[in-house]
Specification:
By secondary structure, the chain is of the alpha/beta class. Helix content is 43%, strand content 17%.
Length: 241
């Protein structure tokens, strides 16, 4: 039976796991902390702890998942690496005002996690030898840079480019690498305070269950008509082609 591994077990990652579990899929979550791993097990999925930015640790977790689940069809990266520092705007702020180490702080973790996911996810599916799907979740900054998001946009535009290039490399092998762009803030406990401070209306946020349904859609597409990039835009946010 097909199985899924989701990197990230809380908030969006948890919602993605729930969507697959509801359809009867064997599932596992990979998270950084044992606390999140416990939450993943409580949902009914297997759980492993690993740093998603560490290729070796991630490879070991995916190897365990193949052994425990018996098959591995879909791997999803739902890890969020936003880490604003005190007195620093959430997305890095204006480039002219950025700290000297801001480029590394805001871009490298995102690209490291994307690299580890795409490389080790591809290798895991290649070992399976029967195709499969990789879903990299990113945000709207990958498509529409805005004031105060120069560094954050650079990170996610790079992630988008890396995913698209990997998709072309893996396509002849029957493996599909997809990008899922969440073009708006998530309606998530992790973002509640920031959305309240910024006055973001709920209609301008993306529901986690809707994003999870989009992941589920990508995982189940017929091979004759597939998506390599899917954008979820909240109805309260201006759509951009």
């Amino acid at each position: 039976m097909p199985a899924v591994v989701v990197l990230g077990g809380r908030n969006l990652g948890g919602a993605v796991l729930d969507a697959f579990l509801a359809d009867g899929w064997p599932a596992a979550g990979v998270s950084l902390s044992e606390r999140t791993a416990e939450e993943t097990r409580a949902r009914g999925a297997l759980a492993y702890t690993a740093d998603a930015r560490d290729p070796d640790a991630l490879a070991a977790a995916l190897s365990r998942a193949r052994e425990d689940l018996g098959d591995l069809t879909v791997v999803v990266n739902a890890v969020s690496l936003a880490r604003a520092r005190p007195a620093e705007p959430f997305h890095g702020g204006a480039l002219a005002d950025a700290r000297a180490d801001a480029l590394h702080w805001w871009t490298v973790p995102v690209l490291e996690a994307g690299f580890a996911f795409l490389r080790e996810g591809a290798r895991a599916l290649q070992q399976r030898g029967n195709g499969g799907v990789l879903v990299q979740i990113t945000n709207g900054s990958s498509r529409r840079p805005a004031v105060g998001t120069a560094l954050w946009s650079a990170a996610h535009a790079g992630l988008r480019a890396m995913t698209h290039a990997t998709a072309q490399e893996l396509r002849p092998q029957g493996i599909r690498a997809c990008l899922l762009v969440v073009d708006g803030p998530l309606d998530s406990p992790a973002t509640d305070e920031r959305r309240w401070q910024e006055g973001v209306p709920v209609q301008a946020t993306a529901d986690q269950s809707a994003v999870a349904a989009a992941v589920r859609y990508l995982a189940g597409q017929d091979e004759r008509a597939v998506s390599y990039e899917l954008v979820v835009t909240p109805t309260g946010r201006q759509w951009q082609p």
